[in-house]
Amino acid sequence: MILEVATLYVKPELMPTFEADFVKASQFIAQAKGYITHELQKCLEQENKFILMVQWETLENHTVDFRTADLFEQWRTIIHPYFEPKPNVEHFVCVYPK
Amino acid sequence: MILEVATLYVKPELMPTFEADFVKASQFIAQAKGYITHELQKCLEQENKFILMVQWETLENHTVDFRTADLFEQWRTIIHPYFEPKPNVEHFVCVYPK
């Protein structure tokens, strides 16, 4: 299992609609091959900062399968206009607890 | 419920013992007031990068109760020598799913 962590900065003028549009976009990622679960966490220290965490069965389910799927375009069309700069995305494996 | 996210860079020469010492240190944070759970995630893109995620009942359980507790000194003594630079710590609230 792989954890995708995307660091998101939402354009301040778009903050009022971001969370509702994130809910709409969620239906698309949730249908992706190898998708397990995802969550959106809002930072307390920086008002327009969020982290998106997505659990995938494998790295390739995110980097290959999802990014080349029509679902990605539907997801991206809704949420990518919100971000400035472009999201930073990294992948992690859980080492504790095993 | 509050999610603490600490971004950790382990000194490369100390990588061989970090994960075992993290397990030893975990017993101290796990006894803290308001502690719910924690996990350590290892980055696939940067070998010495990790994220520590701790669920707390309240923000103050981390920033006040834990940081002023003897348990924090025991936790810190084991793991802080591993990090360079100093960990960046932020707090988040889950906005999806509600």
Q: Which features does this protein show?
A:
homodimer, alpha+beta, Alpha-Beta Plaits, 4 strands
Written overview of the protein:
By secondary structure, chain A is α+β, with helices and mostly antiparallel strands. Chain A has a single domain, classed as Alpha-Beta Plaits (2-Layer Sandwich). Chain A has three helices and four strands. In chain A, β2 and β3 form a beta hairpin. The termini of chain A are close together. Chains A and B meet through β1, α1, β2, β3 and β4 of A and β1, α1, β2, β3 and β4 of B. β4 of chain A pairs antiparallel with β2 of chain B, so a sheet runs across the interface.
Class by helix and strand content of chain A?
alpha+beta
Number of helices of chain A: 3
Q: H/E element string of chain A?
A: EHEEHHE
What is the helix content of chain A?
25-40%
Regarding quaternary structure, what we see is homodimer
Biggest chain-to-chain interface with counts: A-B, 28 and 28 residues
Return the domain count of chain A: 1
Largest sheet of chain A: 4 strands, antiparallel
What is the CA-based Rg of chain A, rounded? Answer: 13 Å
The second-level CATH architecture of chain A is 2-Layer Sandwich
Range of strand content of chain A: 25-35%
Would you tell me which CATH topology of chain A applies?
A: Alpha-Beta Plaits
Tell me the span between the first and last alpha carbons of chain A: 12 Å
Care to count the β-strands of chain A? 4
